[in-house]
Amino acid sequence: xxxxxxxxxxxxxxxxxxxxxxxxxxxxxxxxxxxxxxxxxxxxxxxxxxxxxxxxxxxxxxxxxxxxxxxxxx
Length: 74
Fold this sequence. Notes:
Layout: E1 8-13, E2 16-25, E3 31-40, E4 43-51, E5 57-59, E6 65-70
Antiparallel strand pairs: 1-2, 1-6, 2-3, 3-4, 4-5, 5-6
């Protein structure tokens, strides 16, 4: 699934679920900057992620896995 800048999403990281916005997305959709109002695993308000070879988005700061889904999709 590809995400676009400005898209509203739900993220899940280590059991924490939060609404977020894709603040910036690369043209190929492999790297994203997720913006949110929370502290999630040491990320304060923003988390840069990269799509790993295993198909999982991971923080480029500490490698934690992040599940991302568009709002309205379960």
